[in-house]
Design a protein that fits this description.
transport, 2 strands, two-stranded antiparallel ribbon, mainly alpha, 1% strand, 80% helix, globular, metal-binding, single chain, 344 residues, Cytochrome d ubiquinol oxidase subunit II, Formate dehydrogenase/DMSO reductase fold, heme
Length: 344
């Protein structure tokens, strides 16, 4: 395996990490209207991700930076063609981050309700649009001989991509609700378990349709890794069913773990279906971007490989330590005591 192919898989792993970690962040944000009946409940839910949400989002920064350095042609075509969709994602993430920091700055319920709405919207928009974007990358988009995107926003809103967006939206929502059940107590915990079961059943149906469509499409294009694509799709489907069943039985850790495995292998299904292209052309296959013609020079990839070898384990160790420190459940009683202390 040469360095260009190695970095194709490294970038894939970085996006897997981002969708697993920020995926349940999005789900937690989207769950606010369904799980919390008062401000104490909303604070309890938000505090489950309070110490880690910004750390989770750094994965997309690292993934984007590595994409830019390792595959500049891919980066240029992707960010120019998908400019509006990615801009909407960025604006939503900004609104979401601002809301986490500012909702508690005033006691006004109207003030907090406004920022809570921004958290929900700022979580739902990226959850949907990331699925649309990556589905279009796998499906293929119109490119000219210079690898320039020649479509429009409506081109990206095709049935396969919309189904992909709905799949990530539901998958992240269920993944996040499972996390809330794992990290809270009392009424919020019980409501999260019930909601995770209901949303999980819907997610199984939608995700199965999307994974099946992806496998059929990859097979029709003669994807060289079709066997691996089928295996990844099957593992994702089984893990999702296991996650829902574990939630029904009250095994919250297994439910959350199953959701994480589902996200991992759903993304790998797309990544293996994409190989060896990075941006296939839907108009003329000769205009497609491949791992070979989109990658940087071997010297650049060599420097990046050494940097990744040193810093990636450090980043993983720090993130693991952070989750270990904040591993305990967020108690409603503790939130009520804090609220009472703030009132005095």
């Amino acid at each position: 395996m040469d360095l260009a192919h190695l970095w194709f898989w490294i970038v894939g792993v970085l996006f897997v990490g981002y969708f697993v970690l920020d995926g349940f962040d999005f789900g937690v944000g989207m769950s606010l209207p369904f799980l919390a009946k008062d401000d104490i409940g909303r604070r309890q839910i938000i505090n489950t991700i309070g110490p880690v949400w910004d750390l989770n989002e750094t994965w997309v920064i690292v993934a984007g930076a590595c994409l830019f350095a390792a595959f500049p042609e891919w980066y240029a075509t992707l960010f120019s063609g998908f400019y509006l969709a990615l801009l909407l994602i960025l604006l939503a993430l900004i609104l979401r981050g601002v809301s986490f920091e500012y909702r508690h700055q005033r006691d006004s319920l109207r003030w907090k309700a406004g920022f809570d709405t921004m958290i929900v919207v700022g979580s739902a928009v990226p959850a949907f649009l990331w699925g649309v974007a990556f589905s279009n990358v796998v499906h293929g988009v119109p490119l000219d001989a210079g690898h320039n995107f020649t479509g429009s926003l409506l081109t990206l809103l095709n049935p396969y991509a919309l189904l992909g967006g709905l799949t990530t939206l539901l998958l992240f929502f269920t993944h996040g609700v499972s996390f809330v059940a794992l990290k809270t107590d009392g009424e919020v915990r019980e409501k999260a378990r019930r909601l995770a079961t209901r949303s999980g059943i819907i997610t199984i149906v939608i995700a199965a349709l999307f994974l099946l469509w992806t496998v059929v499409m990859a097979a029709g294009k003669g994807a060289p890794l079709i066997g691996l694509t089928i295996a990844c799709a099957a593992i994702a489907a089984v893990a999702l069913v296991v996650s829902v069943l574990a939630n029904v039985r009250g095994r919250e850790g297994a439910a959350f773990g199953g959701g994480a495995v589902t996200v991992v292998f759903a993304v790998l299904t797309l990544w293996t279906a994409l190989f060896p292209y990075v941006m296939p052309s839907s108009t003329d296959i000769a205009h497609s971007l491949t791992i070979a013609n989109a990658s940087s020079t071997p010297y650049t990839l060599t420097i990046m490989s050494w940097a990744a070898l040193v810093f990636l384990p450090l980043a993983l160790a720090y993130q693991g330590w952070t989750y270990w420190v904040f591993r305990r459940r967020v108690s409603r009683t503790r939130i009520e005591r804090a609220a009472a202390a703030e009132a005095h």
